[in-house]
Amino acid sequence: MITATPFERLFLGGIRDAIGLSASNKLQIKTAINVSMEKNEPRSTGLTYVQIPLPDGEVVASWVRERVLMAIARHIRTGRLLVHCGAGMSRSVAIASLYLHIVGYAEYGEALAAIARVREVDVSPAMQRSVEKYLQNLAREGSNESSHSRKLSG
Which range of residues forms the domain containing residue 12? Predict the structure, then answer.
């Protein structure tokens, strides 16, 4: 089931939810960002589809996470978007929480907890390590969230 995050244009779901958009799009989602390895089929003609596959069982390279975050930032400006993975419980949740952290909505853990209040969350240990490593690199590089926030928001 597609659920909203605390951010009004950002929704989460699984591959079945994304596929279901071809039959019904009551939430008026404009973009589906797929972070799973599976492809979205069938596709709705009115949606933009972006696929940036993230492995769930291994640490994800920083440049790949950055690419997903930039895709979210670019497409969220045009309307509602769905970030989804296979089950909608690990990769999509971790990436959405990281996005909310970087744009200054909430700390990563707070964003994750807010999402867990509305949907099942089960971030894999590897995905959790990926996010933690990314946040540590930001701190180590002297990059703060406000500089990343400016980069992602415009």
Answer: 3-153
103-126 pLDDT, tens digit each = 999 999 999 999 999 999 999 999
Residue 51 C-alpha from the chain's centroid: 11
For position 148, what pLDDT does the model report? Answer: 56
Give me the residues paired with residue 131 across strands: none
Provide the number of structural domains found in the chain.
1
pLDDT tens for 10-20 read 999 999 999 99
Q: What would the DSSP string read from start to end of 46-63?
A: T-EEEE----SSSPPPHH
pLDDT at 61: 87
**100-129 in b/e burial notation, b at 16+ Cβ within 10 A?**
bbbbebbebeebbebbeeebebebbebbee
- The CATH number given to whatever domain includes residue 144 is 3.90.190.10
pTM of the model: 0.89
